[in-house]
Input
Amino acid sequence: METMRLLFITSKFARFINDPQPPFVYDLAVELVGLGHEVHVVAPHDQGSKKRELMNGINVYRFQYFLPASLQRLSYGPGIPANINRSIFAQFQMPFFATAEIGLARKISRQVNPDVVHAHWGFPQGLAARYTKKPYVVTFYGGETFLARRFRMIGILSGIVSHSCRSFALSTGLRDIMHEFGVKGNVEIMPLGVDTLKFKPKADGFGEIKDRFKGDMIVLCVARLVEKKGINYLIEAFERVLKKVPDSRLLIIGTGPMEAYLRRLASNLGDRVVFCGEIPHSELPKYYAAADLFVLPSIIDKTGDRETQGVVYLEAMASRVPVIGTNTGGIPDVIRDGVGVMVDEKDSVVLASEISRLLIDGKLRKSMGEKAFKHVLGSFSWKKIAERYVDAYRSCLK
Output
């Protein structure tokens, strides 16, 4: 099989090994390098990260979009949409970000002469891909679609789709949203994958977590603490759960702008709710493997934003842990065929009932966890997703 030279243009990328930021673009790049392809990545700089480095065989080039570096506010943290929503200064940096990324993408494209460019995020990454004048594919993650509607740039997204070789959305739910908002052109479905060698049953160190909460049933939630994750409904539900399953404990991993509010909401539940803060991605597998149940009751927030896929469900399922989610956005693409439970959003009463049912019924938990595990191995491993992308890249060269 002939080696391809690929150029990724992305809105965020691992700043260092074991960066706690979501690693999906990094994971895909690692898998493609493992398949024998050459991968170059143009990504935003962050204070303390290197402008140029070789990371696990991936050539990384980072653009600084504001001076000094300590004042860069747009990328990383909770993500570009959340940063823009909470900071006028982040909004002010948007044109500098787009200009810097387009400039570096064109420069690196001229230097390495890629066979195919892959834009991760429709804007401005898709625009940067167009300016390279190379065949390109674009993956839409969701946040850019809501921002495009807010800033009246849907026409730009349509142009990016129409000029691409292939365009992908993470889920049918996201594709439906794109079409509802007026994005024109053919958009296919390509989900994010999960590292099934890292996230697995009985991952290294899981016994340490079990021992720390010895005797308790562990309900796990991994999420940024922002409105669309619906963590307030989970805490409200868990108060009800404790009346039926008093030896249960809720672990919440993640940080975000709603943390102080959520801590106040959970204050009357004492040590039954544990805020673990941000944990390095390399440490997450042992928490999943130690959990009896994973729950993330995402909602459609006041801006219309919602879960476009939900990789954390896949990480739990790969760990053979049953999951509960909500029937919103792209979640039904992940939790289907009896591999988990879905409830309506914002219904803490029904959510509490389903959490209690699964905690009490060990046989059901085991059966559902096993089905989830097989489902992920069959459809969502990064190896399978990378192979599908390789086919897409090759189709651009015919």
